[in-house]
Amino acid sequence: MTIAEQINAKAKEYRNFTAENLSRIIKMKSLSGGEKEVASAIKQMMEQAGFDEARIDGLGNVIGRIGNGKKVIAIDGHIDTVDLGNLENWDFDPLGGEIKDGFVHGRGTVDQEGGPIAAVTAGRILKEIGIPEDVTLLVTGTVMEEDCDGLCWKYLVEEEKIKPDCVIITEPTNMNIYRGHRGRMEITVSFFGISSHGSAPERGKNAIYMASRAALEIEKLNERLANDDFLGKGSVTISEFKSKSPSLCAVSDFARIHLDRRLTWGEDKELALNQIKEIVKDMNAKVELLEYNETAYTGLQYGMEKYFPTWKLEEDHPLVKTGVEAFTEIFNKTPKVDKWTFSTNGVTIRGYYDIPVIGFGPGNEVLAHAPNEKVPIDDLEGASAFYAMFVMKY
User: Fold this and answer.
1) Is 145 tagged catalytic?
2) Which CATH architecture has domain 184-295?
3) Cβ atoms 149, 344 nearer than 8 A
4) 3-181+310-393 belongs to which homologous superfamily?
5) Which of 145, 146, 149, 253 is catalytic?
6) In the annotation, is 202 catalytic?
7) pTM for the whole structure
8) Which among 57, 80, 113, 228 is annotated as catalytic?
């Protein structure tokens, strides 16, 4: 048997192992900052799969290791999920973890606990067929990504001193290979007015009017933002508008808008901030890039600014080529090479630390954050085979 045939056979043999492991953790609610139970379960799964080491770091990330070689490959997936939303929109229990009709059902199956669970199975396969002597494989189940993508890898690189040669992100790709996505920022603009009695608005300066004029200009800005042939167009939208006044019979003296800014290739933090500052330059307004600083389930407080850089690899990058070769050998067909529409831990891994990244994950991203989330067991089996094959070929 070829290596690919051996790996496919093992992935098929452990198909139920993978599905049942995923089902087990779907039953555990795992919002950002509340991943403790799932982290402990995944650590146990790594130990059961024969990993050389499995541990939980100070932020709460699960780190599994196989091998001691100089080439370090990481397979990453976040283990927190968004909340359930309106339960009336679900056709099944989102925390049921039901295995039925070829799917594992529930919140987090696609986004994105299916990925790291398949990576645990890949580790079991590699332990049994033999990992190359020059390779160290790390499987990371990372935390707090839904609240602040990339924060977990800031901790891994800066505090744990883990800097692999490459990373596979297991966010859903519909079993395609992804090589980038747009970056993003969270910006607020605060407007400071002067209140007066509502019967004499001319005596005051209405912060809501200032914010509204700025909002209309921001809508126009969205139409003229840069475009990239691969990643697409930059975008900006207002996602929240708040205001205050001394009374409902008074002119508003404060307003604030929250901006979701998506950054295409060539756009960065300074450019995006300056575009907004230019719009409000003649207003009494303050433009701010937000900070994230929250407490992990371990009790550690940790944070970063909410600037998440754009990243992409060229299609002829060696890592992309290796991914294509591994895919072709496992599935006997050529993969689609594409990009995510949303943001991932790649913003830190590649965007800040310049570590090469590709994406490959089970499930369709259209189900991310949506009701009736479910992942095909065929995808879980295929992903575990792909991860193992990639390690063998790297």
Assistant:
1) yes
2) 2-Layer Sandwich (3.30)
3) yes
4) Zn peptidases (3.40.630.10)
5) 145
6) no
7) 0.95
8) 80
